[in-house]
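Duplicate of earlier report; FGF14 factor input re-posted below.
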Amino acid sequence: ELFTPECKFKESVFENYYVIYSSMLYRQQESGRAWFLGLNKEGQVMKGNRVKKTKPAAHFLPKPLEVAMYREPSLHDIGETVPKAGVTPS
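Output:
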């Protein structure tokens, strides 16, 4: 697949922790304001020059692709993995 500059978006976290996407290529001609990605109530893509970053149509919830839970190591575990100074491992 060939990706063009039209496929590049800047991802930003908005003040309400939603994610907004703005075009790296297109901007408003007069004001220079970025075009934002937005979906209407039917789930169809809206025109970039009609979407503002403050409108709910441009707000997306971030979804992690994979969640991994790790146990935090204790100080005892950390001490075992660090080699002592001057001691060569056998």
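The domain at 5-81 is CATH 2.80.10.50 (Trefoil (Acidic Fibroblast Growth Factor, subunit A)).

Merging into the original ticket.
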